[in-house]
Amino acid sequence: MSQPIEVDLPHNLGKDEARRRIANNIHKLRDHIPGGASHIDANWSGERLDLTVHAMGQAVEAQIDVEETKVHCHIQLPGMLALFAAPIEQMMKLKGGDLLLEDKRD
C-alpha cells in the first residue's frame, strides 16, 4: 500500500526565486537517495513541479507547489518504501529546504 507524505518548506524568497532555485537543484536529488537514482523525470506546469524519481526498482512520484512563502511537497511512496515514511518525512522537514532552495551562485 502506498503512503503519502505532505511537507511544507517555509521560505522568504518569493515565488519566482524559489522556483528558480528548485529548478537549478533538482539534479542534486540523486546524491541524497540511498543507492542513487537511476533517473529523474521533472516537468513544470506553472508553479507546480511534477517529479518522478526512479530508484531501487521503485518510482516515487511527487508534486512540488511553489508559493510565495512556502514550498508544499506531496510525495507518494510506493509499497515497500512506505515503511520508511516517517524517517523520509523527518529528513524532508530538516533538509528539504536546504536541498531544494540552496543558492550557490557566485
What's the gist of this structure?
The protein is 26% helix and 38% strand. The protein contains two helices and five strands, in the order βαββββα. It has helices spanning 15-25, 85-101; strands at residues 3-10, 39-45, 48-55, 58-66, 70-77.
Attribute tags:
alpha+beta, five-stranded antiparallel sheet
Q: Can you describe what's shown?
A:
Helices cover 26% and strands 38% of the residues. The longest helix has 17 residues, at 85-101. A hairpin with a 3-residue loop joins strand 4 and strand 5 (70-77). The protein has a five-stranded antiparallel β-sheet with strand order 1-5-4-3-2. It is globular. By secondary structure, the chain is an alpha+beta fold. The N and C termini lie far apart (45 Å).
Strand order of the largest sheet: 1-5-4-3-2
Principal-axes geometry comes out as: globular
* Structure summary, number of beta strands: 5
| Number of helices, where a helix is a run of at least 4 consecutive DSSP H or I residues | 2
Largest sheet: 5 strands, antiparallel
Distance between the termini: 45 Å
Mean pLDDT over all positions: 86
SS strand fraction: 35-45%
Note poorly predicted spans: none
Strand and helix layout:
Blueprint lengths: L2 E8 L4 H11 L13 E7 L2 E8 L2 E9 L3 E8 L7 H17 L5
Antiparallel strand pairs: 1-5, 2-3, 3-4, 4-5
